[in-house]
Every structure is written in structure tokens, then in C-alpha cells.
Specification:
This protein has two helices and 17 strands. The protein is mostly beta strands. The strands form two sheets. It has a nine-stranded antiparallel beta sheet with strand order 8-7-6-5-4-3-2-1-9, with no helix packed on it. Strand 16 and strand 17 form a beta hairpin. The relative contact order is 0.17.
Length: 301
Amino acid sequence: MNKMKKCWLVTFVVAFGFFAQGALAQERNQEFPRDVHGLWWQPADPGWATTVFDHETAMSSALLLYDHEGRPIWFFSPRLDCARETPRDILVGCFGAMYRVTGPWFGEPTFRPDLVRAEAVGEWSGGWAAPLFGGVGPDSRRTLYILYTINGTTIRMGGGTPMLVQVIDRDAPLLYLDTSHSGLWGNPNERGWGVGLFQQGNKLTATLFIHGRDGQPRWYVVNATAPEFFDVTVGPPFNRLFEGEVFETRGHPWGVVTTEQYSARRVGSASLRYGATAADGASLRYSIDGVEVSKTIFRLR
């Protein structure tokens, strides 16, 4: 199973125009601070976000924005190089090439790998500030400033409005996201798309990185809860079921400064059941505007 998932890492990032052999050859990075992994948003300008995934040997990120018509569009950075000259609990900085990926419509009955294309569009760069409190848990004060370039246009987030990590379950203790269940997931046999899973306590947020009928990258958000309560202090929530709704959001085009608010539309429902162990993957079902999809997905390590 580990060999399968590592092979999928190669094919997944090759679909984004990136060769990951060097990343796979590295030993697991024990030093990278775990509280930078998650879904990051900007309270001053909600509706868009960036994800940061910990693959144990590398980091990656997906940027969730809106195109010139206000439709959701995502860009992917398959490998972030992170500077570690300073102590890890003081400042963290990462950067990496960013790609726009087109591919087959998510509702195709048979996956079409021949339709997957990747185009280099620019770079993702981010810096986290504020240390962990005593090094014993995530610090809600840690903030993220990002700078990204798309097709020659550079957008710098500043003006005293940093990004904050999204708290998934406000009723749960402020813990690190469990990386056995949170991270970038996908199907080993289908490259070019993925699912960001962020599970905390008895709630789960998922970001679907898929493609529309026109082959363009589109993202959707799933908000789900576990029907059965689980004591988060006991251990990893294996074999748990989460059920919820799927939303499509619309917002202002990236790079445009405006006071216009984003809108959200419920487009369907979703469920996700984790396997009995971390190696068993998860069963994902979702519907978007009447189109039903069922996938088995695995965490990309």
C-alpha cells in the first residue's frame, strides 16, 4: 500500500509538471512545525483560502481563488521548499512553483487520464509568524502572509490582514490536526485531482479539487459532522463516518480589491468513511447538482 501511494505521489505531481523523485527519497521531516498544516483563510476577505499539506517528506499547497467571472478556480504547488535557517517555532517560510491543472469532468463514468494537462503559471510563497506556546500545542496566534504570482501578476497579502488557520470543530480541544486523517487525499489510479481533508474533533471540512464539464479546475467545500460522538482524547478516529453538505462559492476575481461579499450555494451532499486503519484509505461519496460520484481515496504521504 505504501508503494502504491508513493507511486501516486509521482503521477499526481507529474500531472502538475513536477518531478518528485527527490522529495520521495528524503527521510521523514520531524522538524517541520505541525501547526502550519491546515486550511488558511483571511477574516478581512473571506471566501477564498489556501491549504497547506504535510506529506512527511515535503509540503504542498492549493490556492482556492475565483476566476474573472467569479467562478471557483484552484492552483496547485506540489512541492514547497521551506527555509529552516531560523528555529522552527519562531518563523517558517516556504515557496514553490504553482500550476493550473485541467482535466476530465468529475462526473465522467470512466476516468480519462489523457485529458490531464498542467501549465506552470507562477509561484506560491508564504511566511508564518509567532511561536508555539511552550512547544506543547498549536498556537492560535500563528499567522500566515502569502504572496503569489499568476501569469506575471503578483499579489501580496499585507496591510495588517494576515491569514488564520480555520478551526474545524470549535467544541474540540485546540489540537494539532490529526495527519492520519487530515491532509491531501486522492485515488492512486487517477492523477490530476484530489481532496483536502481537515478533520478535528467530531467535524470535518473537505475541499474537492476537481474539474468542471469544460475541463477547468473547480473547487467545492464539504462541511460534515460525525453522527456518533467520539472522544477526541481517546485516539485516532478510525472507521468513522462523516456526513454533510457540498457547497459552491462565488467571489470576486483574484487580484481585485473590492468590498463585494462572496456567496455560497448548496449543490449536494457528501459522506466520508475512514478505513479501519490508516492504511485502508477512505470511502468518499458526493453529489453536485444531481451528479453522484463514489471514490476510494488514500492519504498522500
